[in-house]
Amino acid sequence: MKPPHHQFAVASTSIASIASIASFGGLAVSACLGTVLLFFVGCGTAPDRDRSGTSTSPPPSLRIATYNIRHGRGADDVLDLDRTARAIAALDADVVALQEVDERVRRSGRIDQAAALGESLGMHHGFGSFMDHDGGRYGMAILSRWPIASIDSWRLPTGNEPRIALAIEIDPPGFGRCTIVDVHFDWVTDDGFRFAQAEVVAARLADLDRPWILLGDFNDTPGTRTRGRLGGLGREGDRPPEESNTWPADAPAVDIDSIIAGPVEAWAAFDLRVVPEAIASDHRPVVADLTPRPAPGD
Q1: Intra-chain end-to-end CA distance of the chain, in Å
Q2: How far does Cα 288 stand from its chain's mean position?
Q3: Structurally, how many domains does the chain consist of?
Q4: N or C: which end of the chain has fewer CB within 10 A?
Q5: Which of 255, 189, 246 is nearest to 227 (CA)?
Q6: What is the pTM of this model?
């Protein structure tokens, strides 16, 4: 059984009233609740063991989620970032990768959405920009229960519009240093752009010397070469075919949002859950509970 998670409460103050961000270049990172920017934390202590060497506590568990929030505009076409925050809080996740995030863009009221969501949910946040848009910047963000030790933007081949992968490093207790990579690949019908973007991500993942989690809006379905290329690098979570679709949120017809953890030897097999949130965005969130793969003999 998964240990209880901290339930993040959404502040009663409207997100529109929240402002403050530390930013640099196309990236922004904030350590909320007074934590110093880019604060490094060590690994959690090892579980207690009895005299036989057997662990006496359950393995650590990391709840991770991906959610394309469409800059807070729901399936009903209403812009409501407070509703988005409530939908994210309901996931009770330790780490949430977000796609289609605005930073001070006119269409979304010039709110720094990553900072506002992080403040509202009591989470640290990192933002990466695809491009300048409508008076601000447009891109993706990651929310984390733990301080963000580093943040990087991996520039991907440009397709219909510029794209990046947003990579952060965190130290979840019991896991050690992990890299979380958030992606939102090109959406056009021809998969050439998507596959080129996936190849760059695959090469960067191959260079990592630590466990990683890749998640986001792949804009491609299982069985395609893009999903196959990346899924083959690690473990992709299982889900029942009849409950796998994520878009459109009000009547899901395709499975395009997913979570992959690698390398294979670092993670136990896991299941994915598509959350039946049908209004807050045009995508449904996807959640997984990850645990380390037991060492031989455990």
Answers
A1: 18
A2: 11
A3: 1
A4: N
A5: 255
A6: 0.84
